[in-house]
Amino acid sequence: LAQKDIITAGLNIPLWLKQNSRFIKDIIKKDGGSLSKIKLVNNNIEYSFTLSYKLLMLKLLLHRKFGKINYYERYKPFVDSKGYLLDLIMSKEVKENSLINYSKVSKYAKDFFEGDYSKGKYLDWFLTMYFWLKANGL
């Protein structure tokens, strides 16, 4: 998920290149345009590569206020992997890891699999944290 070399390189990019996604957009432009045809995604909302940062922020704000998020579709892979996720969460390795709040993770998993799919973001966080810890030997 997060490799030390990539994180270091990202942190060393000058701030002016990071503003308004300039660095990423420059990479896409240099590709010759084929990448610019692919929709970008932010908070599960698709938008065009050509959309400016300010318009994107407005679109995200309006979507947060008035849009509906289909949590089931967003986290369907978690539903399909229920057995694996529950086994992982109930494992001794997770229960005894001081960097993971086992009681919260297990509560969110229980709520998620009982139908509250908005709790999928916590399972997403848990999996990211778990695999990052494993990749870094923690």
How is this structure best summarized?
With 138 residues, the chain is mainly α.
Which terms summarize this structure?
138 residues, 2 strands, mainly alpha, globular, single chain, two-stranded antiparallel sheet
Question: Overview of this structure, please?
Answer:
The protein has helices at residues 4-11, 15-18, 22-30, 53-66, 71-74, 76-80, 82-89, 92-95, 102-113, 120-135, and strands at residues 40-42, 45-47. By secondary structure, it is mainly alpha-helical. It has a two-stranded antiparallel ribbon. A hairpin with a 2-residue loop joins strand 1 (40-42) and strand 2 (45-47). The protein is globular, with a radius of gyration of 19 Å.
How are the elements arranged and paired?
Blueprint: H1 4-11, H2 15-18, H3 22-30, E1 40-42, E2 45-47, H4 53-66, H5 71-74, H6 76-80, H7 82-89, H8 92-95, H9 102-113, H10 120-135
Antiparallel strand pairs: 1-2
Helix pairs in contact: 7-9, 9-10
Shape: globular
Strand order of the largest sheet: 1-2
Q: In percent, how helical is the residue content?
A: 55-70%
Give me the count of strands.
2
| CA gyration radius, whole angstroms | 19 Å
Distance from N terminus to C terminus (CA atoms, Å) equals: 14 Å
β-sheet strand percentage: under 5%
- Whole-number mean pLDDT: 84
Oligomer: single chain
Biggest beta-sheet profile: 2 strands, antiparallel
Q: SSE order in H/E notation?
A: HHHEEHHHHHHH
| Structural class by SSE content | mainly alpha
Number of DSSP helices? 10
Low-confidence stretches: none
